[in-house]
């Protein structure tokens, strides 16, 4: 039987409020006590250990400092919370400071070696890694457009975000697309990326989104397997996913284990 409490403890210790190297181009980090502030993304990002170590008025002041810091920059900011965070009134205090929750996801963790099976794609669909070169800008533009269709929102920020991470990540960051052949040419139907975290024993599976009309054909499952192969080859023990309700059942059937939930709380400046 899997010890989910041990998985959660390892997750808390190794992945939260950690500066990941190499740093993406244009990204900087600042500490405010135990809180880590990330600057230079499409919106601000702050994260703490499970317990930021402050309570009451001190916690309110910590929250206000992050809001006001990014307000001065004219930027939104995301405070990433988990369902088991302390103190228990953290989210109430975020709400009181003007932060609003986005969709809750489930944090699932599994062993890379157990997931590193050979991907099987449906007929007419190919899986490939996106690399630097002449076609990179077009690939990233099509990925952003596909994500926008899936989530019904503007995901154009992904073009610059992924380009910077590919340029600086080396072998620690890999982007994959699944493409279907159509009369008008290849169409990106799924895209996802892998972020390795050297020395932490964890790698993150991010961005796994599939167009609705292409779901149920094993494409997302194959995308997990391909990234798991790469992670296992690099000696990574655990894979972690912040899973939507579309992805969670697939991942749990593959053998990943739910350990907690995560909800972004976002403050957005008035325009």
CATH architecture of the largest domain: 3-Layer(aba) Sandwich
Task: Tell me the Rg in angstroms.
Answer: 19 Å
Average of per-residue pLDDT values = 94
Unreliable parts: none
Q: N-to-C terminal Cα separation, in Å?
A: 52 Å
The gross shape turns out to be globular
Task: State the order of secondary-structure elements, H for helix, E for strand.
Answer: HEEEHEHEEHEHHEEEHEHE
Per DSSP, what share of the residues sits in E-state strands of 2 or more residues? 25-35%
**Major beta sheet summary:** 12 strands, mixed
CATH class of the largest domain: Alpha Beta
CATH superfamily of the largest domain: Gcn5-related N-acetyltransferase (GNAT)
CATH topology of the largest domain: Aminopeptidase
Helix proportion of residues, in percent?
Answer: 25-40%
> Count of helical segments?
8
Query: How many domains, in number, for the residues?
Result: 2
- What class, by secondary structure content? alpha+beta
Annotation, overall tally of beta strands: 12
